[in-house]
Amino acid sequence: MITARRLLFTGTVAAIGGVSFFLLGLPLPFLLGSMLATALLQTLRSDTLPVPQGVTQLAQALIGVSIGFSFSLSFHQSLIGLAVPLIVYLLAIMVLGFVSGYLLFKLSDLDGMTALFCCVPGGASEMISYSEAYGADSRIVATYHTARIVLIIVSMSFLAPWLAGGPGGEAISGGAEPSIGLGASWTPLLLLIGTLAWWLSTRIRFRAASFLLAVLLGVIGNGVWFHLDKAPLSYTMIGQMLLGVSVGSKFDRATWIRIVRLGKTMMLVMIFTLLISLGLGYLFYRVTSVGLVTSLLATIPGGAAEMATIALTLGRDVTLVAAIQMIRLFTMFLVAPGMTIWLGRRLAARGTEGKG
C-alpha cells in the first residue's frame, strides 16, 4: 500500500513536470519534463523507489500504438532502396561502439568487459543482463547506458526541432497537435489497446515485444476502426510521461555518485559517441534520399521508442525511424554480445599494464 502511494506520488510529480514543460513551450515536453522531475525526486529521496519494469514496457506499448497510427505499410520499399547504406551504417555503428569502449577502458580504471558493454549501441536492458552474466560491473553498465540515453534524448529534443526549421515548442505543441483535448474521446479505447499489447508481450516473449506488438495493433486498429491521421495528444502524452518516469527513476543518489566517480571520462566518451553518431547520420542523409532530421533520428543510438516519439511529434517519417532503430537493436542483440565478450576477454588477458 505504501509503495502504491509512493508510485502515485511519483506519477503526480512527473505529470506536473510534463505539463510545466508543455506550458513553457519546451521541446518534447511530456517526456523531458516527466523525466527530469522524476530524476530530481529520486535524487532527493533518502529511500529510492524502484519503478517496476512493467512501467517501461507499458510506456513502450502506448508509444507503439501512437506510432502504429502513423505507420506507412509501404515502408519496406524504402528499406529495400536503403539496403546498402543501411548495412554500411550498421557496421560503422558497431565499430563505433567498440572504439568507444576501448577509449573508456584506456582512460578509466574500468575493466575491459565493463567498458565494452557500456558502449555497445544496443538495448540497455539486454546489455546490462549480458554484462552481469559475464562478470562485468552491471551497475556501471546500467549507469552509463542510462546517462547515454538521457544525453541523446535531451540533445535530439532540442537539435531536431531546430534542424526542422522552427522553434522547439512550436514544432511540438503548436503544430499539428495544438490541443491536448483534440481527439480525446478516443483516448480510453487507445489506452485499452496499448494495455492489451503490453499484456500480450508478457505472454509472448521476444525482443521488444511490447513495442512491436503495440505498433502492429495500432496499425490494425487505425486501419479498421479509427481512421485517424495520428493518435490524439491527450493519449500520446501519457505514454511519454510513463517513459519519462521509467528513465528518470534510474537517477538516484547512487547513480549520481558513480557518474561523478567516472566524471570527465564517462562524459568525454559519451560526447565522442554522440558526435560520431551525428556524423554517421549526416552521411546517411548525404547518400540517401532521406531527410536530414529523419536520418539523424533513425540512426542515432537513442532507443527506438524515444527517437520515434521525437519523429512523431515533428511530423517526420516515423515508420522509417522506428524500422531502422529496430533493425539496429536486433543486429546489436544478435552480433554485438559475442564480439564484446571476445574483445573483453582479450583485453583482460593483456592485463592493465598499458592503461592510463
From TrEMBL:
InterPro entries: AbrB_dup (IPR017516), AbrB_fam (IPR007820). One of its GO terms (cellular component) is membrane. One of its GO terms (biological process) is regulation of gene expression. The chain crosses the membrane at residues 7-37, 82-104, 142-163, 183-201, 208-228, 265-285, 291-314, 326-344. Keywords: Membrane, Transmembrane, Transmembrane helix. NCBIfam families: Gneg_AbrB_dup. This is Membrane protein AbrB duplication.
